[in-house]
Amino acid sequence: LLKVLSHIDSILRSPRTPPLIFQSSKGPVQNCIKKNGQRCGFEHLPLTIEMWADQLIALKDLHRSLGKLSLELLPGNTKDPQYNRESFRVEDLQLIVDSILEELEHKKKNSQTQSLQTLSAIVSHFQKLFDVNSLSGVYPRMNEVYTKLGEMTNAMRNLQELLELDSSAPPTVVVDTVGKLCDIINKNVTEQVQQLLGTQDIHSIINKLEEHDCFFPPFQALIQDLLCLLEVSKVDDILPAVQNLK
């Protein structure tokens, strides 16, 4: 037994042993002294071995947690995590971690590639929609589209206010309302023209216009002759000039 304890003690004191493990075992127990006054030399072994046992149990729990994480991040992994194994090595845990890191790096590269492909498709679609022949023309056309959109939005808002429509009214409603308003205005103008000409018949309107074309040129020529003959410059001066001739 002493030989085994000596072997364990030499391992604990080896440079390969983590300092924290050995130092953490120091305490009152280490001051144990045999009856003959000599130090035991193995008084720190129970605490150190107890710590190792706890670490081995924690290693098994850590392996189980990493296995579950691996199944979540690597759904295609069909390997049995082997949770029921009695012992695990650090190399087993490192292998799981390396597999997870490799898969995450692979997904990151694929995501970046897909993002570039999506961006390229969006730019190509924009070029087709707005007739842009080169990449250098995309930004100017975007600015132009944004400016035009702002102008149309402002115009639509102003029309909605003038027509007393709700701000949520779609453009089709605005256009229909403007069309109805134009129809009302055109109808009123037609009625006013008919009243002015004193007729409700389009043929009568045409006849009156033809009569006007026949009458006005000779009348205009007569007036011009009178202006020259009477040496006046305005039509209003013709009648006084004639009266002065009497």
Automatic annotation (TrEMBL):
Places the protein is found: Cytoplasm, Cytoskeleton, Microtubule organizing center, Centrosome
UniProt GO cellular component terms: centrosome
GO molecular function, one term: gamma-tubulin binding
Chief location of this protein within or outside the cell: cytoplasm
UniProt key word Nucleotidyltransferase: no
InterPro entries for the chain: CEP70, TPR_rpt
GO biological process: cilium assembly; regulation of microtubule cytoskeleton organization
Keywords: Coiled coil, Cytoplasm, Cytoskeleton, TPR repeat
TPR repeats: 136-169
Its job: Plays a role in the organization of both preexisting and nascent microtubules in interphase cells. During mitosis, required for the organization and orientation of the mitotic spindle.
Subunit note: Directly interacts with tubulin-gamma; this interaction determines centrosomal localization.
Name of the protein this chain belongs to: Centrosomal protein of 70 kDa
Taxonomic source organism: Erithacus rubecula
Taxonomic lineage of the native organism: Eukaryota, Metazoa, Chordata, Craniata, Vertebrata
